[in-house]
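Chapter summary example.
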Amino acid sequence: MTTLRKRALIKMIGLSAVSLAALTACGKKDEAPAAPAAAPAAQAPAADKLKIGFMYVSPIGDGGWTFQHELARKAIQEKFGDKIETSMVESVPESADAERVMRDMAGQGNKLIFATSFGYQEFVQKVAADLKDVKFEHATGYKMGDNVAIYDSKTFEGAYLAGIVAGGMTKTKTVGVVASVPIPEVVRNINSFVLGAQSVDPSIKAKVVWVNEWFAPPKESEAATSLINGGVDVMYQNTNSPAVLKTAEERGARAFGKDGDMSAFAPKAHLGSAVINWTPYYTKVVEDTLAGKWQGGSYWWGVKEGAMDLVKIADDVPQEIKDKVEKAKAGLKDGSFAVWTGPIKDNTGKEVLPAGQVADEPFLKGINFYVNGIEGSVPGAK
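The structure predicted for these 382 residues follows.
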């Protein structure tokens, strides 16, 4: 094929293609343009999780106070699933660090914050005043606010039940308490323990050693040693570690776990553990918050609400003592028994509660004296 013929053929093919395109376009000019493909339906955004922060004064491994809060945190996380998101910070001092941690929690989106130690009180008040959209729950405090509730467990009921066991087990008729910080909560627990012991044997005496810290295992151990050297053979504590119990086992004495089940730390010395269960209260707070029904106020739960119990009573405790414990528990549950029922005298012989009178909450939360039978006086009491 000559070059001229090739060029003619290419030209004809090009013209045919143009004509075909033109005809196709003419045939479609009256048709409606195709509708664009529908965009995928937008999904409704998932509801925001309720973010909850927990602030602890001691390590979660303390086996007691903080450990029980941590168990409850895990329990509510499991119960409410993806409706909530919880986090915690442990070993936060009762100082300006507490304010920093709470502000940081709020900055991370936590709308409900549990501050779980008495010494956080002023910092809770300060931060809550600035962050009105955050709800604060302060354990063992007494200052409330529009967005601040206070809550506590009736640990004095557990102390009383432990005291019954102590009264049935002491051979020296002298029991002891390693105490943390001299505030009404702690003094109330000391007294309740002794009242429990004296319900078995009114002649029982008691000694107290203060360490002035919540969690200080070496000091707690030294205090326990001092009590044993002073003739104490059964000890209670209001501190956050198992050091007292461990020391008791090393020295051939007996003792109790406090706040958590501490039986594994010193099984030979262990007489029982006065255990706090925070889960019922934390469940209530989360349910209320999710439902938009959270409100401030003061909440104080004990044996009746399932928030307090004495568990793992030692096998060698006499059955009649165990029966006495169970009878007291039943009375606390149904309201037929109250630990602080007169007549009760302080250790100077002054009557502080007349016969038949049951202490009200203001009385219980203002106790700053030792009951009859306890040596010494409450630090700082007037």
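To summarize the output: Residues 1-46 have pLDDT under 50 and may be disordered.
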